Amino acid sequence: MRKMIDLDSFDRRLLDEVRHDNLQPARVLAEKVGLSLSAVLRRLRRLREEKVIVADIAVVNPALTGSALTMHVLIQMQQAGPQTMDSFAREIVRHPEITAAWDVTGDDDFLLKVQVGSMEEYDVFTRRALGEDKGVHSFKTLITIRNIIENELARRPLRDR
Question: What sequence ranges are listed for the domain HTH asnC-type (predicted)?
Answer without folding.
Answer: 7-68
